[in-house]
Amino acid sequence: MSKTVQTAKKAMCVRYTPANIEAYTTAKSLFADKLVSEKNNWIRTKLETLNVIDSKIFWKNYKRTLTGQITESMGNLEENGILHTETKDKEDILFKTFFDGSHMSDANFDQSFGAEIEHTYDEIISTRPIHSHTSRHDNDFLNAEITLQEIESALVKQKNNAKSFDEDGLHPVIIKRFPAQALAVLHKIFNLCFSQGKWIWDTAMIVFTKKPGKPNYMKAGAYRPISLASYVGKLFEMVIEKRKKYRLRLCVDTTA
Q1: β-strand partners of 77
Q2: Which of 238, 244, 235, 239 is nearest to 138 (CA)?
Q3: What residues pair up with 82 in beta bridges, in sequence order?
Q4: Burial zone of 96 (CB within 10 Å; 0-12 exposed, 13-18 middle, 19+ buried)
Q5: Which of 39, 54, 120, 131 suits a disulfide with 50, CB 3.0-4.6 Å?
Q6: Interior angle at CA 213, CA 208 and CA 219, nearest 5
Q7: What phi and psi values does residue 207 have, to the nearest 5 degrees?
Q8: Among 129, 142, 140, 130, CA closest to 251
């Protein structure tokens, strides 16, 4: 072993001690926290002087420079004076803002409106079913097995101008081009759900779009949530909706 290597080895043994490792880890953590803090302060100061158009350009250039891609439409979010950069933190802020109902306990929430909604809901669930003079044949139609013709009719009426794919990676255009074998499977799934009273499309993908003209896109309220529900589930709804409309028309005709 050369003298140079021996000297380097001795120096490493002196420096690589538990105390030095702890000091290095602490310093690294402090530096990372300070770096995030200074970056957030710089971003906040920069955005305060920009209008909506310039703000969009800033975020576009910022993401291209630091990440090499600009696909994420949402920048950092501010909550209680703290700027959040991590995806998980931003998701938590968006959930609290739009989905956990905490706004109903705010002092400025219209409590009379909330009471009116609850009263209307209680009335709906307590209303007894209307017994009409429709025939047994009409009721049989309402509860009969879903036919392949009903699915094909709903497919014709389903709009195919949707801008996004759903959580299953499907689009109305794809469903409209299902071969006979796929439609047969869909037919079986619909009837199983219908006969057992099951709804299997209970999740949706949520995307957030910017509300136009907002001065600050670091606030969660500057975004609008859009739910991308299952297109297959929507097709099933169209089949049931057509039957219900037919049944309601009969109720109106018999009570008129």
Answers
A1: 84
A2: 244
A3: 79
A4: middle
A5: 54
A6: 50
A7: -120, 150
A8: 130
Residue 14 sits at the vertex; the CA angle it makes with 11 and 20, to the nearest 5 degrees, is: 120
**In this structure, is the dihedral angle defined by the CA atoms of residues 186, 190, 191 and 193, taken in order, positive or negative?**
positive
Residue 187 corresponds to which tokens in the numbers above? 């037919």
Q: pLDDT tens digits, residue range 177-191?
A: 888 999 999 999 999
Burial class of residue 206, CB neighbours in 10 A (0-12, 13-18, 19+): middle
End-to-end Cα distance, the chain? 105
Separation of alpha carbons 140 and 148, rounded Å: 17
Contacts for 102 with CB less than 8 Å, ≥ 6 apart:
96
Give the strand pairing for 205-210 and 223-228: antiparallel
Single-letter residue type at 218? M
Q: How far apart are CA 162 and CA 227, in angstroms?
A: 12
User: Which tokens hold the place of 102?
Assistant: 């905490």
Answer yes or no: are the C-beta atoms of 231 and 166 closer than 8 Å: yes
Contact 234, 170 (CB under 8 A): no
Q: Share the mean pLDDT of the chain.
A: 79
Q: Which two structure tokens, joined as six digits, stand for 77?
A: 């979010």
